[in-house]
Amino acid sequence: MTAPAQPRLLRALAGETLERPPVWFMRQAGRSLPEYRELRARATDFIAFCHNPEMAAEATLQPMRRFPFDAAIVFADILLIPRALGQEVWFEAGEGPRLGVLPPVERLAGEVEASTARLADIGETLARVRTELEPDRALIGFAGAPWTVATYMLEGRGSDRSAARAYAHAHPAELDALLKVLVDATARYLVMQARSGAQALKIFESWAEGLPEDVFERIVIRPHAAIVEQVRAAGVTAPFIGFPRGAGALVDNYAAQVPVEGVALDTQASIAQGRRLQAQGKTIQGALDNLLLRAGGSGLDARVDTLLEAWSSGPYIFNLGHGVLPDTPAENIARVVARVTGKPLSALAAE
Question: What separation in angstroms does the CA of 8 have from each of 11, 209, 217, 254?
């Protein structure tokens, strides 16, 4: 019996240059698909949705049925960790996340071990998806990065992060203590995900912009490196993708100091920067503007072709520079995936 082919995504993260890059999209699990909206309407609230393995697995698999993506990413949320650590978290309809008063760091630290068990539902979701997903399609687990999660914990909601950045300058020791708790909890969470079926792990640093170089090193680079170190120490070998969104030129520092196999690039990344990272031994991912994906048309086709021509000579994963927007037409997603994979557009279920 012939062994199943290794997933294309894992080959790219191992440094292979393939005849075409693997393709998947951030936030592909849900948001823009009508079947997701129907599923979401059946959940009592968003957090309950994330903690329902049957529903979360279905949300993870829905885009895989529609489009020939090379990888699925588990349906979850970056704010499940603060909730597991004991901070109140809820979602206001139409407004986004809200968090209660930040507990003392000492109390949070005492909940790190227990937090992993409280996130066991996400492990079950991964196990369910891995059972149903074809062997040649990879499964990605993820977590929010410590600094990004800390901004929500400190401010109590999504914002421009100005209060959190001011806190980073005014209270460095206190922030470092909070980040240490989040590093430990995140590493345990990712180990659990890998043992549940995740074959690659992604760290989402959604709010890396606006940080001076020294602060970026302290609150982004060091925590990311510490997470990878702890996960590796636990015996997990799954490759990592790091995403320091908005970091600009500091992405080069990140790639040089954080031992991730892949570096995800946002929409401001230049062609030259991507090639430079590839030359340094990193697999690159991303950069397609999610607004352009939503707009569609000839401009989208041209940008897809430009990225493919520029980066396909090195290890590369085709993706967006941010997540799929909720009002993105499914036919635009199908158009891009067909262009990357070479499959006929007529063969893709984009209705």
Answer: 5, 31, 32, 25
Whether 20 is a known active-site residue: answer no
Cα-flanking dihedrals φ and ψ of residue 86, to 5°? Answer: 115, 0
Concerning whether 27 is annotated as a catalytic residue, the answer is: yes
Query: Which residues fall within 8 angstroms of residue 345, CB to CB, at 6 or more apart?
Result: 334, 335, 338
Asked if 191 and 236 count as a contact pair (C-beta separation under 8 A), the reply is yes
Of 8, 66, 70, 77, the active-site residue reads 77
Give 6's DSSP letter: P
> What is the C-alpha to C-alpha distance for residues 302 and 293, in angstroms, rounded to an integer?
12
What's the pTM value of the predicted model, to 2 decimals? 0.96
User: Is residue 65 among the annotated active site residues?
Assistant: no
Give the pLDDT confidence of 269-301 residue by residue, as tens digits.
Answer: 999 999 999 999 999 999 999 999 999 999 999
Q: Which position among 11, 70, 152, 165 bears the catalytic label?
A: 152
Cβ within 8 Å of residue 97, ≥6 positions away: 79, 89, 90, 91, 152, 157, 158
Structural domains in the chain, CATH included, are 8-343 (3.20.20.210)
* DSSP H/E element including 67: none
pLDDT tens per residue across span 36-65: 999 999 998 999 999 999 999 999 999 999
**Active-site entry in 8, 27, 83, 161:** 27
Query: Could you confirm whether 77 is annotated as catalytic?
Result: yes
How far is 239 from 189, CA to CA, in rounded Å? 15
Residue pair 182/258 in contact by the 8 Å Cβ criterion: no
